[in-house]
Design a protein that fits this description.
single chain, alpha/beta, Rossmann fold, 2 domains, ten-stranded mixed sheet, 10 helices, 10 strands, about 45% helix, about 20% strand, elongated
């Protein structure tokens, strides 16, 4: 049984995430795999109290009213005959989503990048940072113009060869294998912080050039082994770039015209930290596509 959860604030901004989750559920169903699709709406205790007063009833009346609103909101989303379970959670959005994901043993958690109320701050605020650093399962942050399970996937998967990054690459490969498209696996060799960002490689000190050449050779060998294991043929390219992770990943995404980026949540370099730290708030808001975060594996805890 595959369980797919999606968060909703019942605004139009949540529609792309719900559609993304429903289409993913349909793919699993078409493959003959049983699937559950669960929509989660979080409400604070204060908001619940106000709703209870407005409805003139108790907590059950208030949550029943929210369920009715959720059903009406879902009428905008094609669910392909799949029943949508509704979960009303009381508390902060990130904690509520994690709780619901753990309670339902979710295989996917899907959220949007903007909206109204607390959920609109999920991805941009400190709560989101905690969720993104340790998602309970693969977390899809859906960009309205990103990959949506229709048409080819142009997937970018940065890797530092850590277990979670490898998991993200394998998930990206499965997506391209099943959906069609192309996967670019990128490894960034991080330059020393003392290296000016605008200096041409020809101006690097000799010791740095030697270090980069040796490191690139090792990285390319690792990428070749990974490519052999993925067995995607012409649907796969690999690339090694020296530079700063933030710049190189964004530059590659733009050059590759990526509509979905897969990233491990922990690793040996600053790649994951960059995406999930302070700079990420702006990057996610203006991302060229959907972002999928693969959770840490046991060896990285």
């Amino acid at each position: 049984m595959t369980t797919i959860l999606f968060g909703s604030d019942l605004s139009e901004h949540g529609i792309p995430a719900a559609r993304w989750a429903a289409r993913l559920a349909r793919l699993h169903q078409q493959d003959g795999r049983p699937v559950r699709l669960v929509g989660v709406h979080a409400i604070s205790p204060e908001e619940l109290s106000l709703l209870r007063v407005a409805s003139g009833g108790g907590d059950k009346d208030a949550t029943d009213a929210l369920r009715d609103e959720f059903r009406e909101w879902m009428s905008q989303v094609e669910t392909f005959g799949i029943n949508v379970e509704i979960s009303i959670q009381i508390g902060a959005p990130a904690g509520a989503l994690v709780h619901a994901a753990q309670l339902n043993k979710a295989n996917w958690l899907v959220v949007g990048v903007s909206g109204r109320g607390q959920l609109s701050r999920l991805i941009m605020g400190s709560t989101a940072e905690r969720l993104a650093h340790r998602p309970p399962c693969p977390l899809a942050i859906v960009h309205p113009d990103g990959f949506a399970w229709e048409g080819d996937a142009r997937a970018l998967a940065p890797t530092d060869f850590s277990p979670s990054a490898t998991g993200a690459v394998e998930l990206a490969a499965d997506t391209v294998r099943n959906q069609g498209g192309h996967l670019n696996v990128l490894h960034v060799i991080e330059l020393p912080r003392s290296t000016p960002s605008l200096v041409e490689p020809s101006a690097y000190p000799a010791a740095l050039v030697t270090h980069l050449e040796e490191t690139q050779k090792v990285a390319r060998a690792q990428l070749d082994r990974l490519a052999d294991a993925l067995d995607l043929g012409a649907q796969l390219t690999t690339e090694v770039r020296p530079g700063y992770p933030s710049h190189e990943v964004l530059a590659t995404a733009k050059e590759f015209d990526a509509n979905i980026i897969f990233l491990g949540c922990t690793g040996r370099s600053r790649v994951a930290e960059w995406f999930l730290g302070g700079v990420a708030r702006g990057v996610v808001r203006h991302a060229p596509g959907t972002l999928v975060l693969f959770p840490a594996v046991d060896t990285e805890e």
